[in-house]
Amino acid sequence: MKGKLEPSVRQDLIEEGKSLKDVISTLEQDLLILTDKLQIEAQIIPNITHPDAPIGGEENSIVRKRVGKPREFEFTAKDHLQLGKKLDLFDFDSAAEVSGAKFYYLKNEAVLLEMALINWAISEVSKKRFIPLITPEIVRSSVVEVWFQPRGKNTQVYSIEDSDQCLIGTAEIPVGGIHMDSILPDSALPLKYVAYSHCFERSRCCRQCNQGTLSCTPVQQG
Known about the structure:
There is one protein chain. This protein is mostly helical. Among the domains are: 77-128, no CATH class; 131-211 and 218-222, 2-Layer Sandwich (BirA Bifunctional Protein, domain 2), CATH 3.30.930.10. The chain is 37% helix and 8% strand. The strands form three sheets. It has a two-stranded antiparallel ribbon with strand order 1-2. A two-stranded parallel sheet has the order 3-6. Strands 4-5 form a two-stranded antiparallel ribbon. The radius of gyration is 27 Å and the shape is elongated. The N and C termini lie far apart (68 Å). InterPro entries: aa-tRNA-synth_II/BPL/LPL (IPR045864), Ser-tRNA-ligase_type_1 (IPR002317), tRNA-bd_arm (IPR010978). One of its GO terms (molecular function) is serine-tRNA ligase activity.
């Protein structure tokens, strides 16, 4: 082919190839910018709610079912923190020295209870053909973006410096990433998973805690 082309024609084609390479490089950069903008816009689209879900505040909530009846005490009931400290089940003070505020040690029967509950819960749902998983606790920020905002001043996510990785805030994140960028055939469905992991989130009080209607202690590792 080269031997059949005039030198001037060949040189023109070489120059055209270089020009096309520059054009492609520019278009690829434009595509990245547009893709990022599309992702940002897509992330502000709210989830589709069930048509029966009430619209408005808690005053519009509908009680579907009550199981049991709240116990009434003839004395001032203690909350879980008061009981746990009295029974030597929690140690917030030592954890604060070791890790910082809003961390804790579980102790004694609380450890056995937590492990027993985890084992019982996973065993029960496994009977219904859920696949049990223990997930990674560090994932790429692109995976976290499906659930949270991994960067910025208001993020609740712990990011790993100089990397594109984050600590997970819930096991749903790595579970949701198992089949990302995949097309699943109908024959493979349904896929049901139950997962266990630690969860890391910059602590914040829920609205009920802030209103004083719920006793809770926000923690950074669960």
